[in-house]
Design goal:
Pfam families: FMN_dh (PF01070). The chain is α/β, with parallel strands linked by helices. It is 42% helix and 11% strand. The chain has one domain: Alpha-Beta Barrel (TIM Barrel), CATH 3.20.20.70. It is globular, with a radius of gyration of 18 Å. The mean pLDDT is 97. Bound molecules: flavin mononucleotide. The site of flavin mononucleotide has 24 residues, from loops.
């Protein structure tokens, strides 16, 4: 299986919902929701992508050569690379009936496991979205991170118990999900106070990750609630039109809470170079969404593992070209004019 075949298969298996564009930048699918696109004008998705492209890297080959190490430690586990598959669910609604949420989650979670990273699983309007993800995590021996919608606090705590039972190393909640058109109709979904977040975080021994933080103030509130980490995310531009790009807000968030909690980021990350740029701006790790879905639809877990390896190889090559031997060498000095 080569990558061109994977893309061709994905085009077929996604039934035209995702066009598998050469550049996955939100242009062709703007407003396609249900579907893989960004909300409204699609500007939040497109800006995530565009602002990453605008960052440029300083090249430097004058250094003492030694082996490159791309490994990182998060949630008490060691990973080959600092990037992970983002949670994607309700796949029949957004893509096509080639997979249900269990088949999709299994392809992602197992492919990630085979290539030394980890996959997140999602949640949705129907309870099966979550339980099918949990079942994939369980069958991978706990190698996956369930992501729960912001239901009522007691319901979130209940769902966290099933993540614990599945053996997950961490659990997440996408607090921004109230902006999804299908979820907005549900009155049980919505914002959480610092006290709510503290109750949720204290209900579990697992590291709790809050996904969908876009301001330094939001990050400080998450820190005050005792949360392990955040994902700087606008849900791939699917919850609110006209947000800044995630890489635009990342530096302020790092300034506010960096070193005191883990900071992950997603939105428009498409290459190992993009992963490198996010780390240079201070992220501890990165999630990649739609391209992992394309890999899963194009060739199941084997393609997911191949995709991970290709992004990892680009990251390693970027480190060689910039004199960064380990991830801790990647800081803002590698970015031009920053
Ligand atoms: C079809 C689709 C379904 C998604 N489902 C979920 C979900 O269930 N939970 C969640 O936290 N995020 C969900 N997301 C958002 C992703 O986790 C991630 O934040 C986003 O896709 C990152 O941007 P990228 O796709 O540009 O890399 C979904 C995204 C897409 C495209």
């Amino acid at each position: 299986m080569n990558y061109d075949q994977i893309l061709e298969n994905a085009r077929q298996n996604m039934g035209g919902r995702c066009l598998v564009c050469k550049d996955c930048n939100g242009l062709a699918c703007r407003g396609k929701l249900p579907g893989p696109g960004g909300k409204g004008s699609g500007s939040s998705f497109m800006r995530n992508y565009q602002k990453l492209q605008e960052l440029k890297i300083n090249m430097d080959l004058v250094y003492h050569k030694s082996p490159i190490n791309t490994q990182t430690e998060l949630f008490g586990k060691t990973f080959e690379y600092p990037f992970f598959a983002a949670p994607i669910s309700a796949v029949k609604l957004h893509y096509f009936d080639y997979y249900d949420d269990e088949g999709y989650s299994k392809a992602v979670v197992n492919g990630c496991k085979a290539s030394g990273v980890i996959g997140f699983t999602g949640d949705g309007e129907h309870k099966e979205c979550y339980t099918m993800g949990i079942s994939a995590v369980k069958s991978a021996g706990g190698w996956g991170i369930p992501t729960i919608k912001p239901w009522a606090v007691e319901d979130v705590i209940q769902k966290i118990k099933t993540a614990e039972e599945a053996g997950a190393p961490a659990v997440a909640m996408d607090i921004d999900a109230a902006g999804l058109p299908v979820m907005a109709k549900d009155k049980n979904i919505g914002a959480k106070s610092v006290e709510d977040l503290r109750r949720i975080a204290e209900s579990t021994r697992l590291p709790f990750i809050l996904k969908g933080v876009m301001t330094a103030e939001g990050a400080e509130k998450a820190l005050a609630a005792g949360i392990y980490g955040i994902v700087v995310s606008n849900h791939g531009g699917r919850v609110l039109d006209h947000t800044p790009a995630t890489v635009e807000v990342l530096p302020d968030i790092v300034k506010a809470v960096g070193g005191r909690m883990k900071i992950l980021i997603d939105g428009g990350i498409r290459s190992g170079i993009d992963v490198f740029k996010a780390l240079a701006l201070g992220a501890d790790g990165v999630l990649i969404g739609r391209p992992y879905a394309i890999a899963a639809y194009g060739g199941g877990e084997e393609a997911v593992a191949m995709y991970t390896e290709s992004i990892g190889a680009e990251l390693r090559q970027t480190m060689i070209m910039t004199g960064c031997q380990s991830l801790s060498d990647i800081d803002s000095s590698v970015l031009w004019n920053k």
